[in-house]
Design goal:
This protein is an alpha/beta fold. It has two domains: 166 residues, Rossmann fold, CATH 3.40.50.2000; 182 residues, Glycogen Phosphorylase B (Rossmann fold, 3-Layer(aba) Sandwich). It is built from 13 helices and twelve strands. Helix 6 packs across helix 11. It has a six-stranded parallel sheet with strand order 2-1-3-4-5-6, with helices on both faces. It has a six-stranded parallel sheet with strand order 9-8-7-10-11-12.
């Protein structure tokens, strides 16, 4: 019997980076262990130990390439030449200039990211467009495979019933999407006026701490509707938190930019997984997430289009349930953990054997 391959999944430097921590490291490591446990032995860590340089066969990193991580990998490649995989879920080269925090992060770490790319044996991307753009803008070409985001359909929720004639509307996002809150606030205020008391609406948002959000966007200006904002949740609490919100509609406005086209469709998957009907900009990659009922779930980026479609969904609970039932089917077929990680695990092991035997 062949000895199992030892694979180490390393988190980013920040344990509270929910998206990266859950979907690009924690969840893949658990599912690969479940599906390929007869071939691989997985370990998950946020602390790199020197002895692991000699114990592990494959090292799997996200694109948060901090100096200590790069120094570790550089030493490891010199001493043991172990196989390094680098995962990307966006293109840091394309961060818009108005996102100052992200720009600062990238400017401080871009040389380390490029070094990490040079040290890696295999890249992993969420989709082909991101792969092409990241490779072209950095000029560093390596073999790559795709790992779309996925959700665990064992915990897939049905569309929640309304309570007290109230529709719960949600938004989840990082600091790179914080200006969504300005768009959403304006939409919600207009919708609140047009509803004229026919329905109650509540907004639930999960995103950056207040210091990352300009004051004029935020709750302190007393919107007419109820708004509860939760700060980023630790990785281990994130999934539980978004399920507990029991939202009916999930909002995903997206400007059609180079940076945004390099993002993933994760927000769409999360909303359906939570039991909500998504309402998103008809912009890639959101435009490719689901095919059913796109006339209700996608908008042109025009204010009146958003208002009209949001009111339609708010006022029609039976339509929302009908839409969500169809989107659940697509989620099971295309975006479930079992489907996505089975294919990914096979490709990862195949590429490792191919490249490691050269």
């Amino acid at each position: 019997m062949n000895e199992k391959l030892k694979v180490l999944f390393a988190t980013s430097d920040d344990p509270n980076v929910s998206g990266c921590g859950v979907y690009r490291v924690l969840q893949p490591s658990l599912w690969l262990s479940h599906l390929f446990g007869d071939q691989i032995e997985l370990m998950f860590t946020d602390v790199l130990m020197e002895e692991d340089m000699y114990k592990q066969d494959i090292f799997y990193f996200t694109r948060q390439a901090k100096p200590d991580v790069v120094n570790y990998v550089e030493k490891m490649k010199k001493e043991t030449n172990k196989f390094v995989v680098l995962d990307f879920d966006d293109n840091l080269n394309a961060i818009p200039p108005h996102i100052a925090h992200a720009q600062k992060y990238y400017n401080e770490n871009k040389s380390y990211l490029r070094k990490m790319m040079q040290l890696s044996d295999l890249f992993v991307f969420t989709h082909t467009y991101l792969a092409e753009q990241t490779i072209n803008t950095n000029g560093i070409r390596k073999p790559f495979i795709l790992l779309p985001n996925a959700v665990n359909v064992d915990y897939l929720k049905n569309h929640p019933d309304e309570e007290d004639n109230c529709v719960r509307i949600g938004w989840f996002g990082s600091y790179t999407h914080k200006y969504d809150l300005a768009i959403i606030r304006g939409m919600m205020e207009e919708v609140y006026k047009k509803l004229n008391g026919q329905k109650k609406i509540k907004l639930f948002t999960i995103g950056p701490p207040k210091e990352f959000i300009p004051e004029y966007l935020f709750i302190s200006n007393n919107p007419p509707f109820e708004w509860k904002h939760l700060y980023w949740q630790p990785t281990i609490k994130y999934l539980e938190t978004i399920l507990d919100l029991k939202i009916h509609i999930g909002l995903a406005p997206l400007e059609d930019t180079y940076f945004n086209r390099c993002k993933s469709n994760l927000k769409m998957l999360e909303y359906v997984w939570c039991g909500a009907v998504p309402l998103a900009s008809d912009v890639y990659p959101y435009s490719e997430a689901f095919t059913a009922y796109k006339q209700y779930t996608h908008c042109e980026n025009r204010f009146k289009d958003w208002i009209s479609k949001l009111i339609t969904l708010i006022m029609n609970s039976d339509l929302r349930k009908q839409i969500h039932d169809e989107l659940k089917k697509e989620l099971n077929e295309k975006w479930s953990c079992k489907v996505v990680y089975q294919k990914f695990g096979e490709e990862l092991l195949s590429k490792y054997r191919e490249l490691n035997n050269k």
